[in-house]
Design a protein that fits this description.
about 230 residues; alpha+beta; 3-methyladenine DNA Glycosylase, Chain A; eight-stranded antiparallel β-sheet; 3 helices
């Protein structure tokens, strides 16, 4: 989208994930800022320019990640090749979306926390009727997934296959990183890891640190996101 004219101008997605996406999650995450995720699901085209992300490490690396304790049926997509879409259900009501990064089998991912709708605003409004303004349509990971129509059927989609119903169009020039903070809602050993990257944009979601709480039976289980932005 040309911010001066309001028109979307995009080139076709490349055949495979770029080489930098094979780097570690914390290196790949800020490169995704400004890229456009395009969804043709549910009979409408909606495109979101990514303005906020969080990085999550792989198996045995990052206590905040779903993959920390190893492969399960739920997180299996994280162990796939870079450029796959990992979508999961959380809190019994929200979907969240992530891009797999790093080497295949490493299970690193980048959570898409917020973005700007640059195409398909009417469809996004219909999917997010509780939004008070267009800024809020994809302001938060659950809102972003809802605006794009992402759910269980989108899990495992290859974002760099031009035939896919969901595709990532990498920005030639990523948006500049304006803020680096710990990840929203992550507690336990990974609470202070500064792997949240945000652009200077009104669609960026508010930062909320995890609230301390007591748990029985050991430390907090890893998770890719904690979201209250419905």
């Amino acid at each position: 989208m040309d911010l001066g004219t309001g028109f979307v101008t995009r080139s076709a997605a490349p055949a495979g994930a770029p080489l930098w996406m094979r780097a570690g999650a914390s290196d790949a995450a800020p490169r995704i800022l400004g890229s456009i995720l395009v969804s043709d699901l549910a009979g409408a085209c909606v495109a979101v320019r990514i303005t906020e992300v969080e990085a999550y490490g792989g198996e045995g690396q990052d206590p905040g990640s779903h993959a920390y304790r190893g492969r399960t049926p739920r997180n299996a997509v994280m162990f796939g090749p870079p450029g796959d879409l990992y979508v999961y259900f959380t809190y019994g009501m929200h979907w969240c979306s992530n891009i797999v990064v790093g080497s295949e089998g490493e299970a690193s991912a980048v959570l898409l926390r917020a973005g700007e709708i640059v195409e398909g605003v009417e469809a996004a409004r219909a999917r997010r009727p509780s939004s008070r303004c267009d800024r809020d349509l994809a302001r938060g990971p659950a809102r972003l997934a809802a605006a794009l129509g992402l759910g269980a059927d989108a899990n495992g989609i290859r974002l760099f296959d031009p035939r896919s119903p969901v595709r990532l169009e990498v920005a030639r020039r990523p948006l500049a990183v304006h803020a680096i903070t710990p990840r929203t809602g992550v507690s336990g050993e990974g609470a202070l890891t500064p792997w949240r990257f945000a652009a200077d944009h009104p669609t960026v979601s508010p930062y909320r640190p995890a609230q301390p709480r007591r748990r029985r039976g050991g430390p907090d289980p890893g998770r890719v996101c904690e979201d209250d932005s419905s």
